[in-house]
Amino acid sequence: MLPKAQPAIAALRERGLDATLLTGDVAQAAERIAALVGIKNVQAGLSPEAKRLALNRLRDDHGSAAMVGDGLNDGPVLAAADVGIAVGSATDLARETAALVLPADGLWMLPWIVDVARAVRRTILTNLMWTFG
Q: Among 19, 23, 59, which Cα is nearest to 40's?
């Protein structure tokens, strides 16, 4: 999964998006993984509730927040995110609480999903403008 994550994170950054790693893992392991994939912000040793609170703080600071997760303890955070995204190998709980489930090895799709969502938003706004204009 790591080889697929690095280009996806870089492509998201090119689109003006930032990534933060929220994990229950120990800080040393989390920082090593984050460095490998190009994530600068890391919050480690978090319980599911602490992840949800961290997501809320990120949302308060930056606006809408998406969450990508795969573990059992990611379920509550995926449900709380504006867009919860589970990866193909995710636990059943993560897949059930996420708004979107990527296929196995589907991290490369994240930038494409952002592009499609932005295009759909533009179309909706244009249609509303024509409707009310």
A: 19
